[in-house]
């Protein structure tokens, strides 16, 4: 009973003391606010002030506001439904105020960074500190270490249901965090302190979770120098809104790289400083879009996941181990990527077999080719990339049962099987086989250089049907076939300039309704001019030799042709020129002619034909027939000799 009575008396005493303190605070509220304003250098407004005892010695400030520094922004620096400040008891006996805990309920905070890099909170209490600095310097130097510690320390900051707006006048940032739950322990800018944060970023509910050790913080406000050690989750993250809020993000990324849509950052561990940072975690971007210039365009909905253990420093990303899943491709990688005016790669890649279906939606250059089949790659990539530079590649690329349909081909290329060996700037295709319509083709090639693209090749096939690769072929040519075809040559491509030199021969076949044997040709292409350096063929019971040039530099193509004909059957010739014609023609034609003209088609070419030549028909007869007018419909100087 006595103990209970003592307890009641103590509680009553504490209650009376609390009432007295509250009454004392109420009577001196204006004075206390004035002292706080002088100390902090900011205008302060408080609705009510209550003393706290049971939850800790301190005070609760109802409807609290602190004005911003006019040099940074107008309005309030912070306003809160209530602020509770709890101080440590024993330091009070030494006339030192050490804040044990500061609790802000539903605060709205505005952080501003000036163009010179300083923050609006840096001027809080600045005038008072400058005034005391000179007088206390000597005293602090003589005082014990524990007495030289900051007179105003905050052990814990707790924010519930807050909103923060960060405005950076130096780089244009305007970022808002809402529904903030924040706990900061051992807050001291001169030492590391712990942070736990949950907030909503461009979302209706909390989607950001952060735990970290931060600091010590630099007095110059240079955030890239802040030490950090923690873990981050943002799920989801709207990068479209993020780019609008952080304009500097665009300049921080490679200029051709663009992000939009929703990404997810999961279990991202980080340690170091922003300019020298170790990272280990996952980025998931299936619902986001990722574009790199005109060469790569991943749209929203295409699977993308990146797991990486990496380190960023001095514009270089060092990947200890990375795992990428993009569409159907899964690969692991390691190495370095150095960013700058030109990106420099030093990477190893190793993929699982991946289907080629759907890659035309990601790589615009192959958008019209309807790719299918499987591929896998194992390689190292080293060197500069971009601005005309190509890296060195060592490794292999395998294609199995691949297929593609070029837009102008009526039939797809199918059953393509090959292994491509990369060695530096070179790639060797040792044995490629593929099907094109009715044909099975074998190809051996070597890419001598990737930039500019230069390759040599050898190709052979038992037969090749032009109708399989030319959709515009006339009906009467659907039966054309080139048999026992062999070709070899060199091809290069620099910008829009294509260069080709090659040879081809065919044992027999049928072209333009003419059966032939022994086709042998040497061809070239350069500066939009195609040359027939030499063409020999046996046809129409005789033989033909041709040299010529075809220029398509101008809107209207031009050509010139020199031909030598020996022993061609005239009747077969005119049947080939006009299958419906009925002519009483016999004989063997020898001719030596030169022709020139221009036009997109035969009807446009006929009026432009010019030429000269000699022709003779042996052992034949021409009745009421002018070969020059009928065959060429041009102006040909003719000499006919009959024998």
Task: Map the helices and strands.
Blueprint: H1 2-27, H2 29-40, E1 44-45, E2 48-52, E3 58-67, E4 76-87, H3 89-93, E5 98-105, E6 108-113, H4 126-142, E7 153-168, E8 173-187, E9 193-200, E10 208-214, E11 228-238, H5 239-245, H6 248-252, E12 257-273, E13 276-284, E14 288-292, E15 296-298, E16 304-313, E17 316-326, E18 329-338, E19 343-351, E20 354-355, E21 372-385, E22 392-404, E23 413-424, E24 426-436, E25 439-450, E26 453-464, E27 481-494, E28 497-511, E29 514-526, E30 529-539, E31 542-551, E32 558-569, H7 570-577, E33 585-598, H8 602-605, E34 610-622, H9 627-632
Parallel strand pairs: 5-7, 6-7
Antiparallel strand pairs: 1-3, 2-3, 3-4, 4-5, 4-6, 7-8, 8-9, 9-10, 10-11, 11-12, 12-13, 12-14, 13-16, 14-15, 16-17, 17-18, 18-19, 19-21, 20-21, 21-22, 22-23, 23-24, 24-25, 25-26, 26-27, 27-28, 28-29, 29-30, 30-31, 31-32, 32-33, 33-34
Q: What would a concise description of this structure say?
A:
By secondary structure, this protein is mainly β. It is built from nine helices and 34 strands.
Q: What report would you give on this structure?
A:
The protein has 643 residues and is mainly beta. The protein has a domain at 540-632. Helices cover 14% and strands 55% of the residues. The protein contains 9 helices and 34 strands. It has a 34-stranded mixed β-sheet that branches. The termini are far apart. 14% of the residues are buried. The model is unreliable at 1-20, 143-153 and 634-643 (pLDDT under 50).
């Amino acid at each position: 009973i006595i103990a209970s009575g003592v307890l009641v008396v103590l509680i009553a005493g504490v209650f009376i003391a609390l009432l007295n303190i509250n009454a004392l605070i109420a009577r001196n509220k204006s004075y206390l606010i004035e002292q706080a304003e002088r100390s902090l250098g900011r205008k302060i407004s408080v609705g009510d002030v209550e003393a706290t005892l049971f939850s800790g010695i301190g005070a609760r400030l109802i409807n609290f506001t602190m004005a911003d520094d006019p040099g940074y922004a107008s309005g309030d620096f912070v306003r809160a439904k209530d602020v509770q400040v709890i101080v440590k008891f024993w330091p009070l006996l030494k006339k030192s105020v050490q804040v044990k805990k500061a609790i802000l309920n539903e605060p709205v905070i505005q952080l501003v960074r000036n163009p010179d890099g300083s923050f609006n909170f840096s001027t809080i209490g600045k005038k008072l500190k400058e005034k005391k600095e000179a007088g206390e310097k000597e005293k602090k130097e003589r005082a014990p270490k524990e007495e030289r510690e900051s007179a105003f320390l905050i052990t814990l900051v707790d924010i519930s249901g807050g909103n923060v707006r960060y405005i950076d006048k130096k780089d244009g940032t305007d970022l808002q965090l809402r529904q903030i739950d924040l706990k900061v322990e051992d807050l001291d800018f001169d030492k590391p302190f712990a942070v736990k944060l949950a907030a909503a970023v461009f979302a209706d509910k909390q989607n950001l979770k952060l735990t970290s050790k931060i600091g010590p913080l630099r007095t110059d406000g240079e955030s890239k120098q802040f030490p950090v050690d923690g873990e981050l989750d943002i799920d989801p993250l709207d990068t479209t809104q993020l780019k609008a809020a952080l304009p500097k993000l665009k300049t921080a990324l490679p200029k051709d790289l663009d992000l939009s849509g929703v990404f997810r950052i999961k279990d991202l561990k980080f340690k170091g400083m922003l300019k020298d940072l170790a990272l280990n975690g996952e980025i998931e971007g299936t619902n986001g879009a990722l574009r790199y210039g005109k060469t790569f365009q991943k749209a929203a909905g295409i699977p993308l996941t990146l797991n990486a253990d990496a380190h960023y420093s001095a514009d270089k990303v060092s990947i200890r181990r990375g795992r990428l899943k993009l569409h159907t491709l899964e690969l692991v990688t390691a190495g370095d990527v150095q960013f700058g005016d030109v990106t420099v790669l030093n990477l190893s890649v190793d993929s699982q077999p991946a289907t080629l279906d759907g890659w035309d939606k990601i790589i615009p250059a192959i958008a019209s080719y309807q790719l299918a089949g499987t591929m896998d790659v194992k390689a190292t990539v080293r060197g500069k990339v971009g601005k005309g530079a190509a890296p060195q590649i060592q490794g292999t690329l395998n294609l199995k049962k691949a297929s593609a349909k070029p837009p102008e081909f009526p039939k797809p290329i199918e059953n393509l099987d090959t292994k491509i060996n990369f060695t530096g700037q070179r790639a060797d295709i040792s044995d490629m086989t593929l099907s094109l319509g009715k044909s099975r083709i074998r190809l051996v090639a070597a890419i001598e250089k990737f930039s500019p693209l230069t390759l040599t090749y050898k190709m052979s096939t038992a037969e090749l049907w032009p109708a399989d690769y030319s959709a515009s072929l006339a009906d009467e040519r659907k039966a054309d076939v080139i048999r026992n075809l062999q070709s070899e040559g060199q091809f290069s491509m620099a910008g829009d300039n294509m260069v080709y030199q090659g040879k081809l021969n065919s044992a027999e076949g049928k072209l333009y309704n003419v059966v032939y044997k022994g086709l042998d040709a040497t061809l070239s292409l350069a500066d939009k001019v195609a040359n027939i350096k030499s063409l020999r063929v046996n046809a129409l019971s005789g033989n033909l030799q041709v040299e010529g040039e075809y220029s398509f530099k101008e809107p209207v193509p031009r050509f010139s042709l020199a031909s030598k004909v020996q022993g061609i059957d005239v009747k077969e010739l005119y049947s080939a020129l006009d299958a419906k014609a009925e002519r009483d023609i016999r004989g063997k034609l020898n001719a030596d002619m030169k022709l020139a003209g221009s036009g997109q088609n035969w009807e446009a070419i006929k009026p432009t034909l010019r030429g000269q030549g000699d022709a003779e028909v042996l052992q034949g007869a021409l009745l009421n027939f002018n070969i020059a007018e009928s065959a060429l419909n041009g102006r040909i100087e003719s000499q006919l000799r009959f024998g």
